[in-house]
Structure formats: structure tokens, C-alpha cells
Amino acid sequence: MGHNRKHHYIPQFYLRGFSSGSRKIIDVYHMPTNKRITDVAIKNQAQRQNFYGNIKYEKFLASIESKIAPPLIHLRENAVVPKYSSDDYISLQMLLLSTLSRTEKARNERDSAMTKSVKLILEEIPEHQDLLEHQNLMTENSSHFALESLFEFLLYISDLKLGIVRCSEHAFFGTDSPVNLVNPFLESRIKNRSVTGLVERGLVMIMPVSSQITLIAYDPWVYKFRSKNNVLDIGSQEVEYYNLLQGVCMERVAYCSAFTRTSLIRNAITKAKRFRPGSRSRVRFEKLYMDNDPEPKDMIAMSRWEPRLGIIPPGLKFLRFAKNIPLSDTAVQIRNPILYDMIRRREHPTGKADVQEMIADIREHLGQEKDKKKVRESF
């Protein structure tokens, strides 16, 4: 029965933020044909037959959606960022994370990385040919693992602060890959690997949530928001950055309001062409230092493609001390060592913890995080 069901990889309640008039229809811009299609039923968008392979994952995501939809609707209607560490605040962080993990593009990237990893292992260690027999299973399991681990991964981004940028015109548009990760802090300092891991210092997560509002989650130890209440009105020139980012990261389709100009979408996609990747991921063996190990280890390093526009997102600015933070020799520039150590001390297997326990840990961390001096000293 689950094999005949349509699974949405972009939630319908999210797409309704770009509807106009009826809450059931939306306009679609199809990048391969450069055509705009008007008044398309939302229920038929961003879905595939049996996309998650098992109905339990669709039900799992539906249970998450029931928690994160109300805070998103409130954000759209009131343009107010929820109180820090509140249930609504955590729900919006989960909105970013779950949407990032569940899209068709995310699955394609995981498939690509898994295929390249198996090929690399066989080139270096030919006796492991049996891995080829299990490659499809490994690929499917990697997608299921990403969904099962959402609450665990939520801990990694629980220290990110939220803000919104807003424009009076209907100038923002969404895509089939609406959550974009950038890191203007590290992208100019580290060239040979991706710098948008969830625990990386300087991470920024960006997601347009309506034709007038874009949600931003940012590292508070590197950036500050340009508005005290974390709500900033921006002009058309600054909006171009966010639309360019959507154009760079989209797979095939943009979603927009009937009030959004076609030329705005087309121009963003045209400008994005020179930034779009030729390959989704890069996999190679590297000698990497992990945490406090005195000697590097031979490990498979997977770097996924990421946008590097060379610009800090409008609405953010660097903290005064940020550029003086030294980089470590480890494989990852850990943003918040206190949080990272807390996660590593967890005794349960990844993805198997009780949800309430996860939320309790997040709140514990949010309480610790208020002591900025302690965190800064650990850099």
C-alpha cells in the first residue's frame, strides 16, 4: 500500500507561503524549459511515488510537520522571531534541518557520494569487491539514516540564532532545494574542502519562507544581525543575493507567487549559471586530524559542492573579534566545543533517543550557551 503513495519531499504547508489568492495553487518556473506555469495545484508539486521507500518515513515527517507548521505560519503572518529557546524557536530550526535533509537533491547528493566512496575503496583495496553487491542497499540506508537522525542533528544546530529579512514587494521565490548553506567566514580561508557542515564555525542556513520573508539561522559567535529584534527590511538590491542563492542551489523548479515577476526569477537563474556545480560531491582519501588525536588518520573525506558567492548575507555582519579566531588543525572547525562534547558523550545510538530527551538536551545547551565568555575561551 505504501508503494503506491505519493511522498512529498517539500512540505505542502511550506509551498503555501508562495501561493496567492487560493491556498491550493502556486506558480511554477521550470528551469530546463525556461517556462512559467501558472495556477498549479500544490498537492502535485515536489512529490514522487514512494520517494522514501517506506511509508513509516512519510508518517515520521508528517508528525514533524504538525509541530513546525504552526510556528512557520505565525512567522509569515506576524514577521516576528519567536523567543529564543522557545518551542517555536526550536521548531523553526527543525524546519530548516528537515527540509534540508528530505529533498530530491539531498538524496541525489547522498547517492553520488556513496557511489564515489565505494569506487574509491575498491580502487585502493580491491579485495572488497563484495561492496558492489550492497551499494544500492547502502545508498537507501544513507537516506533513511538522514531522516532517522534528524533529532540528533537538531542538537548540532541548536546554538544557531534566528533572524528574518523582509521585503515589501513579492520578491522572494522558493525552489525544490530551498535551504541553502553558506559560510562566508571560512570560504576564503579553507579552499580544499566543503565548509558547510552542521558543526562548522561560521555556518549560515538560509530559507525563503514566503514571497516576502526569508529565514536565516546563523553562528552567533561569528556574526551578528543588523537589527536588534532580528527582523530587517531590505531593498531590491539586497534581495538579489537571496534569489541568486536559490538559483544556484535549485534542482529544476522554482515556486513563486502570482505577484512575483518572471524576469526576477529568470535573471537570478541566468546569473547563477556560472556558480552552479559540475559535480555534486568529491570523495578522496586524506590524512586528517580528528579532535585531539596526535597523529592524522587515513580517512575518506567527502566534500559536497556548496555555493561560494564571496558575500556575507545581507542582514548579517561579522563580529569584531571573529576574524581573529585562529583555525585549528582538525578536519572540522568546530563551532561550539561545549555543544560538540555534550553530543559525543551521549550514550544512546544515533537516531534512537527519545524525543523528549533530545529536547531536554537542547534546552540544557541553550542555557549553557548564554555564557559567551566560556564558549569564546574554548576556541
Summary tags:
5-stranded mixed β-sheet, disordered C terminus, alpha+beta, 4-stranded antiparallel β-sheet, 379 residues
Helix content: 25-40%
**Outline type:** globular
Total of DSSP H or I helical runs spanning 4+ residues: 11
How many distinct beta strands? 15
The termini sit apart by: 52 Å
Most strands sheet:
5 strands, mixed
| Coarse structural class | alpha+beta
Mind telling me the C-alpha Rg? 21 Å
Sequence of secondary-structure elements: EHEEEHHHHHEEEEEEEHEHEEEHHH
What is the percentage of strand-forming residues?
Answer: 15-25%
Strand order of the biggest β-sheet: 7-8-9-5-11
Uncertain spans, ≥5 residues at pLDDT below 50? Answer: 347-355, 369-379
What's the mean pLDDT score?
80
Write up what this structure looks like.
This protein has helices spanning 12-15, 55-78, 87-102, 104-124, 135-148, 150-156, 236-249, 262-272, 337-344, 355-369, 372-377, and strands at residues 6-8, 25-30, 35-41, 47-49, 161-166, 174-175, 180-182, 204-208, 213-218, 223-225, 231-233, 253-256, 281-288, 297-304, 316-318. The longest helix has 24 residues, at 55-78. Mean pLDDT is 80; it is low at 347-355 and 369-379. It has a five-stranded mixed β-sheet with strand order 7-8-9-5-11, with helices on both faces. A four-stranded antiparallel β-sheet has the order 3-2-12-6, covered by helices on one side. With 379 residues, the chain is of the alpha+beta class. It has eleven helices and 15 strands.
